[in-house]
Structure prediction request, 411 residues.
Amino acid sequence: MMHLSVAVLGGGIVGSCTALSLQERGFHVTLFAPRIEREMTSYGNAGVITHASVIPLNIPGVLSRLPRYLLNRDPSLRIAPAALPGITPWLWRFMRGCEPASVGRRAAALNALITPALAAHRHLAGPAGASALFHERGWTRLYRQPGALERIAGERALWKSNGVRFDLLEGEMLETVFEGASKHYTLGVRIPDTAHVDSPGALVERYRALFVARGGEWRCDTPKGIEPGARGYRVAGHERHFDQVAVCAGPWSMELVRPLGYRLPMAFERGYHQEFSLVNGQTLLAPFYDVDGAFVCSPMNDGVRILTGIEFDRRDRTATPHQLARILPRVRDVLALGQARGEPWLGRRPSMPDGLPVIGAASKHPGLWFGFGHGHIGLSTSAVTGQWLAEAMAGKDSNPAMAAFSPCRFG
Ligand SMILES: Cc1cc2nc3c(=O)[nH]c(=O)nc-3n(C[C@H](O)[C@H](O)[C@H](O)COP(=O)(O)OP(=O)(O)OC[C@H]3O[C@@H](n4cnc5c(N)ncnc54)[C@H](O)[C@@H]3O)c2cc1C
Prediction:
């Protein structure tokens, strides 16, 4: 193939994987990205890559919980009052997607993106020297309230129809999640086809180092715009022209594409984490999600990372870790947490109302490509996103699985 030049804007997990995949296909790639910092969403996530993520968040049961959410009675979701007017159109679209036919279609689309996710990461992680960051030990959703098996009938049906394997854990079997779990939970659903990354920030660092080691050009910059012209594209502040541009700037992507006429409905589902050591000899080998307790716990950096659900607020408003304060007593019910390590972390999941990322060609600018909006599953699906984008940018026959993720679906 001709050695086309590509600028990738954004060096979180999605931009890093995309840059590597483009490089593998012979493109000359320049990555525009700041240093790897806590600010990026890819730094502070739960590290979970699971086949169970084929189910989008907006499913029928969500509607019945809406009043609790709107009144901030449920710690899994908080809406900052000042943010409600701005977020209402997005929430309306999100709620409209709860009807079963839409859920089934989107789950099938996500299945195509998630099934190859771990293999795609392994392909990059080996040469990046990052294989040891991945652990294939499954993950478990845990339920405190009785009657959970019936309550999750819809999820079980979706998992089955998409080939997601799961095992039910009750009684003593719950002790396999962590010692003492059977005292607190009535049911566990273990998803064996899951890996977790024990330091998501380190993974981005290794991928970026591989990109540079393979001859990729990294510009430590966050350009303010993209300028189309007769000879391709320039990025603001730089003289060079590029044949193609891939926008992978996560929650900051809209600043780059809106001036070119693309109005895509992205919301920022903010989430927090705090890390702790475990004490009293307690250990945790694999992540779990305490559904009724509204937190995720992941073994991370030789301790555990506790993560909250969703906070709808303006992207750049200062951190308001109310949800952390609400969940930590519930975490302490079940785990022997030692001292908190460091400050709470705030991240912004860049989320589209249908729960699918935006992957594909921009409709009005040949050579401009989008890879953003990965919401809750950006770590998982980043490597496949990179592969799909690179194949499409190299002009390979269109991949039918990509159609569901097209930017054009929003009109
Ligand atoms: C609490 C929490 C838990 C999560 N848990 C999981 C999980 O277990 N599994 C999972 O799969 N996903 C999880 N996610 C989601 C996942 O973290 C995100 O979907 C993913 O990190 C998004 O990656 P990204 O590369 O698109 O964005 P980012 O990581 O935010 O990277 C975007 C980068 O672009 C840079 N940038 C901004 N503007 C510009 C510009 N103009 N030019 C160039 N660069 C620019 C930014 O500085 C940033 O470095 C979680 C998210 C949160 C908040």
Remarks:
- The domain at 1-60+99-133+199-266+352-411 is CATH 3.50.50.60 (FAD/NAD(P)-binding domain).
- The pocket of flavin-adenine dinucleotide is lined by residues 9-15, 32-34, 39-42, 45-48, 222-223, 248-252, 256, 271, 273, 307, 347, 349-350, 372, 374-380 (CB under 6 Å).
